[in-house]
Amino acid sequence: MEYNTQLKKLALPEYGRNIQNMVDYCMAIPDRNERKRCADSIINIMGNMFPHLRDVNDFKHILWDHLAIMSDFKLDIDYPYEVVRKEDLNTKPGKIEYSRPDMEYRHYGKTLEKMVKIATEIENPKEREQFILLVATHMKKSYIQWNKDVDDLKIFIDLYDLSGHKIDIRNSDIRLPEMKDLGQRNNNNNNGKKNNQQKKK
């Protein structure tokens, strides 16, 4: 009796030993045209093993790559695709340079910096004021995630710096919502949604 541990190691275990045996048989066929017909049949069987992947882009191409790998790239046929090369399998991928944006206030995030820039470009005074209040409130919410306490003046000073001194509300009468009030509003909104869903049921 032969155990799997005593048999040749499978290049792609997910296809099983029967498929590997088919590939080995296909490689031994002397007639080139017959080898190609056999390879086509193996590809169809391989595809039927993973029907949920048929919508994946280049699914057929991937199967032919796998067939080449299982044959150790020794299957001599005319492939319908340019299959992966053996030397490329062990090639290390290129190093990805991660984006490290130059941010003075990392706790606010890059998106908020873009929002501040938009606020400086709004010409309508009323729209500008409303948008600035929205931005400042969001800044306070972001800030408090990293710090327990924050006063509005700190937010206004940061906004002044972030805007390149174009938005100055440091001496204004603006008062930002308390974070507990924001949390209460969110809870009320969530409760309202749950009640509406229960009513629909």
Explain what you see.
It is built from 8 helices and no strands. The protein is an all-alpha fold and 201 residues long. It has 2 domains: 8-87, no CATH class; 110-185, no CATH class. The longest helix has 22 residues, at 179-200. It is rod-shaped, with a radius of gyration of 31 Å.
Entry keywords:
201 residues, 56% helix, mainly alpha
Quick gist of this model?
The chain has 201 residues and is an all-alpha fold. It is 56% helix and 0% strand.
Secondary structure category: mainly alpha
- Secondary structure: number of strands: 0
Question: Cα distance, first to last residue?
Answer: 62 Å
Please mark out the parts with pLDDT under 50 across 5 or more consecutive residues, or reply none: 183-187
Helix content: 55-70%
Which percent range describes the beta-strand content? under 5%
- Which shape, going by the Cα principal axes? rod-shaped
Rg of Cα set: 31 Å
Biggest pleated-sheet summary: none
Question: Topology of this protein?
Answer:
Elements: H1 16-28, H2 32-49, H3 59-70, H4 86-89, H5 110-121, H6 125-144, H7 152-162, H8 179-200
Helix pairs in contact: 1-2, 2-3, 5-6, 6-7
